[in-house]
């Protein structure tokens, strides 16, 4: 058993992982979620779940679904919880995030988007004692949301920044409490927000999210089919 699993077993009552997978793969010319793309002998979501189960000790996995929810459920094994965003066509990822949060009483949640193809080395052996967001200046596309930081703490998530957010964020303690407060008072405006906009609300309310630039691992956001043929990507 490696050092990371020993730490989780000792210090964490529950490890919850929320996967935001409600959207449609429009740029893939498909009416299915990008999470159902076949990669090798698995669909993308199966790959993600497998990595989570191999990294954490008995994780609680909650997948936020939208389009073709029943089709996604049939692809995965038992032992996974699902919440359905029936308003996925008119809401942003924040609404799916809200449903996951409201269906868990965990004191820490690792969130990531359902269109990410990443290596286990990206998320293992991280310090899960405080809230953080993963970032990279090389692993994400230029068009993706970036992060500004001061003393390794995120100050804003926004487009047009050189340091890119990897669409993976871990919230615990004060930051998770702030997130729950935001969703208790959620409005129609909040429902239409994207994940990074919710993270900005947490920061504006005094939350501290550490920015981690991992030295190991790889990640790819799958926006279109040609991403799967990226010669420079290697899991």
Question: How would you describe this protein?
Answer:
It is built from 7 helices and 13 strands. With 235 residues, the chain is an alpha/beta fold. The strands form 4 sheets. It has a 7-stranded mixed β-sheet, with helices on both faces. The model is unreliable at 1-13 (pLDDT under 50).
Shape: globular
| SSE class | alpha/beta
What's the main sheet like?
Answer: 7 strands, mixed
Overall mean pLDDT: 84
Q: Kindly state the number of beta strands.
A: 13
Fraction of residues in helix: 25-40%
Q: State which percent range the strand residues make up.
A: 25-35%
Order of H and E elements: HEEEHEHEHEEEEEEHHHEE
Distance between the termini: 22 Å
Count of individual helical segments = 7
Q: What is the spatial order of strands in the main beta sheet?
A: 5-4-1-6-11-8-12
Rg for CA atoms: 17 Å
Uncertain regions spanning at least 5 consecutive residues: 1-13
Q: Which helices and strands occur, and which strands form pairs?
A:
Layout: H1 3-11, E1 16-21, E2 38-39, E3 42-43, H2 44-55, E4 60-65, H3 69-75, E5 81-84, H4 93-102, E6 108-113, E7 116-118, E8 132-136, E9 146-150, E10 153-158, E11 164-172, H5 173-184, H6 188-191, H7 195-204, E12 210-212, E13 219-221
Parallel strand pairs: 1-4, 1-6, 4-5, 8-12
Antiparallel strand pairs: 2-3, 6-11, 7-13, 8-11, 9-10
Helix pairs in contact: 5-7
Put the structure in a nutshell.
The protein has 235 residues and is of the alpha/beta class. 27% of the residues lie in helices and 26% in strands. The strands form four sheets. The protein has a seven-stranded mixed sheet, with helices on both faces.
